[in-house]
Structure formats: C-alpha cells, structure tokens
Amino acid sequence: MLTPNGTRPGFWCECWTQDLAEEQRPALRASFDAYSPPQADRWVAVALRTISPALDPEASDDAWVWLYQGRIATRHALLHGEPCEVAVTHETTRITWTIRPVLFLPLAHRQGAELPACAYDFKPHASD
After folding, report:
1. At 10, which helix (H) or strand (E)?
2. What count of other Cβ atoms lies within 10 Å of the Cβ of residue 66?
3. Cα dihedral sign for 20, 21, 23, 26?
4. What sections of the chain are H helices per DSSP?
5. Is the model more confident about 81 or about 107?
6. What are the φ/ψ torsions at residue 3 (nearest 5 degrees)?
7. What is the 3-state secondary structure (H, E, C) of 95-128?
8. Which residue in 78, 76, 86, 83 sits closest to 100, CA to CA?
9. Residue 92, helix vs strand vs coil
10. Cβ-contact 100, 11 below 8 angstroms
C-alpha cells in the first residue's frame, strides 16, 4: 500500500554474524526487504529451520523455542511497528536477525525517461 507521498511501509531485515571468541565486530551476511509482518518473520523462520540441524544442541533448542513460541511475540511486535531481534549462539558464533519497520522510497524507473546518449553505446560481447 503506497502512502500519499509515494512511500511504501515495510520492514528491513538483516542477518548478522559475530565470532565471540575473536571479539570481532558483527558482519552483515544477508538482508531482505519485506512488505508485511508475516513476510518478515517468515524470512527468519526459514533461515532458522534451514540451519537448525547444523547447530549445536543448545542453539538448535533456542531456534525451535523461537519458532514455536517467540515467533508469536515477534509477529505481535511487528504488527505494532516495533523492531525485533532473534539471536542464537552456536559454539562461538552469534547469529542475529534484526527486523525494523521502514518506509521504502519509490525508485525511478527507465520507462518514459530520456536516457543519456552513452546508454546506447553499450554493445554486449558475444560469448565464445
């Protein structure tokens, strides 16, 4: 749903990892733009279900606790426009998913726009 000023409400989702033993700064591993609370928490749920078999028993348990119980609280918070975080620690690696409400700005598109002359100079190379 577009707002009168052309923005679209949604959620910015990120996945971060951090090696706790090395005291490194968190590293961004993935991001995702969601347009509804279900889409946002589903992104985290799919990731957790995918990696849970490879996690140590405690981290796997934490993942499944969120999937069965914490996910409800996350969805509730997102429906109320609140940011959320889900984290599990596997051995010395902390994996954190963040979800925060945002307004997506409309992007310019090429239809109906006059392109600069250099845009027509590009000729793709034939592959061998």
Report:
1. strand 8-19
2. 21
3. negative
4. 37-51, 57-65, 71-79
5. 81
6. -85, 170
7. EEEEEEEEEECCCCCCCCCCCCHHHHCCCCCCCC
8. 83
9. coil
10. yes
101 contacts 40 by C-beta, under 8 angstroms: no
First vs last C-alpha separation in the chain? 46
Distance CA 121, CA 21 (A): 52
User: For the whole prediction, is pTM greater than 0.70?
Assistant: yes
Structure tokens at 56: 């140590």
- Token pair for residue 102? 């945002």
Contact, 8 vs 1, CB < 8 A?
yes
Give tens-digit pLDDT for 69-81: 999 999 999 999 9
- Do 32 and 13 meet the contact criterion of CB atoms below 8 Å apart? yes
Asked whether 93 and 18 are in contact (CB, 8 A), the reply is yes
Q: Can you tell me the distance from the alpha carbon of 17 to that of 97, in angstroms, rounded to the nearest whole number?
A: 9
Rg value, the chain, Cα:
20
- Structure tokens belonging to residue 83: 């940011």
Which two structure tokens, joined as six digits, stand for 40?
């946002």
Q: Nearest CA to 106 among 33, 6, 37?
A: 6
